[in-house]
Automatic annotation (TrEMBL):
Gene3D superfamilies: P-loop containing nucleotide triphosphate hydrolases (3.40.50.300). The gene is coaE. InterPro entries: Depp_CoAkinase, P-loop_NTPase. GO terms for molecular function: ATP binding; dephospho-CoA kinase activity. This is Dephospho-CoA kinase. It comes from Sphingopyxis italica.
Amino acid sequence: MTHRKRPGSPLRRPFILGLTGSIGMGKSTAAAMFEREGVPVFDADAEVHRLQGPGGALVAAIEARFPGTTGPSGVDRQKLGARVLGNTHELAALEAIVHPAVGKAQKRFLARHRARDVVVLDIPLLFEKGGWRRVGAIAVVSAPAWMQRRRVMRRPGMTAAKLKAIRRLQVPDRVKRSRADFIIETGRPKSETHRQIRFIASCFHAR
């Protein structure tokens, strides 16, 4: 793990740590480890799934804008992805529906945990969408490119073309690393990744 600074005790609660990383870098694993250390985690992806799942608050709006992309199980992510990947206009339209709802959920999360020393905002597009401005420090999960590709290509419905399209939407890993306060290396045994997480969590708990 690389860390550029060890923040002092936070002046306001909760201290907000942004957790991000490119697709397939192990962000979900890192987030789960923060939770095991007792740190509340807001999972932006999980919130999107909830909002787009059966009976989700955004299903009707998405169906209205992207007809044929929803059903009894909510949004069909493969159908929706086929509509927006590689089409900046359509992607922007989807983001205009999704991002405000996720932002409201994030505010509710922060209000619930305002007495905690530190919370984690797990946000895949932290750099890409300007979320880095709203956090006190940034932890980037990273792994070798070959490992990233292997992890991603194991996912159902994933293709090389789809991975390439997703990568075009994301800030490169090397740039994320250069802007991070902490770099969590996930290409190592999980015990080592967990050790890194414990250290980071210890930086923000009141001393």
